[in-house]
Input
Amino acid sequence: MSQEAKKPTNLRANAMPADGFVLTVDGKSKARYETELEALAAGSKLKQTYPAIRVTVFEPITRVYTPVELSETEASK
Output
């Protein structure tokens, strides 16, 4: 069980965490991840499945939203 990946933390609707990285979909917070890489990977997977949605990764410490975009090769699949 120690080798199993840890699930992301679900967020309360009225609270924004003070650390980590938050995956937002169409402006709504969905999950918190420990690293930016994990959040970007989850966002990229969502964008591949649903390319019309707007996915961003929010970093609460610097208050910066990073948009998740599909690369040319991912978009053509």
